[in-house]
Amino acid sequence: MTLMTWNDSFSVQNIEMDQQHKQLFELLNNLHAAMSQGKGRETLSDVFDGLVKYTHLHFAAEEALLKKHNYPGLSEEEREHKELVAQVSDLQKQFQAGDFGASMKTRDFLKHWLIEHIQGSDRKYGVFLSQKGIH
Ligand SMILES: [Fe+2]
Ligand SMILES: [Fe+2]
Known about the structure:
The chain is mainly α. It contains 4 helices and no strands. The relative contact order is 0.17.
C-alpha cells in the first residue's frame, strides 16, 4: 500500500520543487514498502540513507532557489529544514544502533513533517515566487 500520494494540494507552483517533493514521496513510499515487506536491516539502512541524502539535496536546492530570489522567509525555512535534519539524524542513529522501531518512527515523522511543511512553509514561498512570475 502506498503511504503518500502527491496531489495538487502539495504543489508549490514551481516545476523543479514539485518534482523534488514527488521524489521525496517516492523515497518515503519505498521505505514504507521495504518495511511492509519485512526487508532486513541492510536494505532498510540503504533505503533510509537514500532518503536522508535526497532530503539534504532537496533542502540545499530549495534554499538556493529562495536565496536567489531574496525570499523574505528564508531564515525561517532554513530553521525548519535544520530541525528536520537534526531529528532524522537522531532517528537514524537509533536505527543504526539496532532499534528497528526507529525506522517506523522515522517514516511516520517524515510523513507528517512533509505534509505540514510542504503545505505550510513551502507553499508560502510558492505564492511569493509565482507572484514574481517564477515557476
Ligand atoms: Fe522546505
Ligand atoms: Fe521542500
